[in-house]
Amino acid sequence: MVQIAEMFPKQCCRKCALFCGITISFIVLGILIITFRAAIYKCIISKIFVLQADSYTFDMWKTNPLPMTLKLFLFNWTNPGEVLNSSVKPHFQQMGPYTFDETKEKVNITWNDNNTVSFYHLKRWWFNQSKSNGSLNDAITSINPTSLSSSYGARNWSYFLKNGLSIFLSSIAPSLHVTHTAAQVLFEGYEDSLMNMANRMPTFIVGSSLPNFDKFGWFYTRNNSETYEGHFNMDVGLTGQLGKLYSWKFMQHTPYFRDKCGDISGSAGEFFPANLNKESLVNFFSPDLCRYMQLEYEKEVDVNGVLGYKYVAGDRLLDNGTKVPDNKCFCNDDCMPYGVLDVSACRYGTPAFVSLPHFFKADPYYGSIIDGMAPREDLHDFYMIFEPKTGMPLKVAARIQVNLLLQPVDGIRLFQNVPKVYIPVLWFEQIVTIPSEFTIFVSLLKNFESICIAAGIVCILCAVVLEAFCCSRACNKPILSREHALKEIVPLTEKAGFEA
């Protein structure tokens, strides 16, 4: 500052003194911005990534700000009459997509004293014919899920109990397959004689723990339901863990998987940790699978001009204990070959197994015993792309396939001689990409410290130019040349601890 004062002669006019004060203010401002850039960034982040009832973040979290669509693909079983013919593979034809517009919001929100928030998900879907390939009136033939569930639940019964169930199934549900419209299979539901009977009888008689539904449909009762996905409790971010899930359905550990595999852990699905690296695992909880899911780093990608890290479904998600020993507790019975996950305990005892669509990345075994699968990375992978510094999602491609296990069950005539096959039933796809206006905001956060340094240097340069131009003119002195101005700022910036 002493050097700045020496620039001005003792007889300098009042205008020059004013310009001198402004010059000093610019230099101080520039130094402060550069020095405290990290603290400023931390303050901004604490305001953005803390969930409060009156915050901008809350509005985006409460009601999804981006238009969402759900694409559903169904598999039509074209040769069910050949199921007992060992020389003919079951053949499946993909139908769809049947596209639905979706809205999602949080309801029954409760702010808790322990810096957490509790809520339910309310989701609604509307069929969008213009974006669909096919009609909801399309006929879909598939395995009979209720009789299959009954036989699966009875596979370890005594001979006499299984014989009784065999007679019961032969009279109530004599066919392995059923045909219904796409609308009935998905949201509308259809009446099922076995289910109606099961609702009036003790569970053990039919060997299933299906809930008391009056119809069967894969998404039946889910549309416009506040409670279907259950109660969630997550961190609001005051401790730097925004979105961390603490409980689901009032449980901190599910009964569906053993040991640590039953833990309620990871993100609730909207917010993720900052400062991701290439060794990080993206961990989030899926209420549909009743378990946490982990994605692994694959590569760097560009999304609307922002560099992101792509995390994909890999060994941590798809393995059943062979490559990742910690995953063995996800096996409820025998562990399957790589790529298919057992979620039967989560699905009311139905022999439900999930995979990536068309058994992408799965062991070749699954595709070798059926026809009609055509796995492709660009169509069937599950991945999420994040800006690593902020942890903000740039693009999400969620894809999961539901399969039902058909296997022989001794003592039950309907299933006595069937092959062991994982029957593909349906798969869904939901892709969301951050809009370009949001990527500008993400870029600002990502480059905030560099922007602060640049802004600080600009302030200091402005101060020198102001001194050189305005003050010199006010005192009728020659205007400093550009070279002179640079000579003046270099000692100042070096003295402040910065390079010119």
TrEMBL record:
Keywords assigned: Cell membrane, Glycoprotein, Membrane, Transmembrane, Transmembrane helix
Chief place of localization: membrane
Molecular functions per Gene Ontology: scavenger receptor activity
UniProt signal peptide: none
Keyword Hydrolase: no
GO cellular component: cytoplasm; plasma membrane
Transmembrane helix keyword on record: yes
Subcellular localization(s) per the UniProt record: Cell membrane
Coiled coil regions in record: none
Spans through the membrane: 16-40, 453-472
InterPro entries named among the record's database cross-references: CD36_fam (IPR002159)
Classification via PANTHER family: GH07959P-RELATED, SCAVENGER RECEPTOR CLASS B TYPE-1 SR-B1
Entry's family note: Belongs to the CD36 family.
Protein name per the record: Scavenger receptor class B
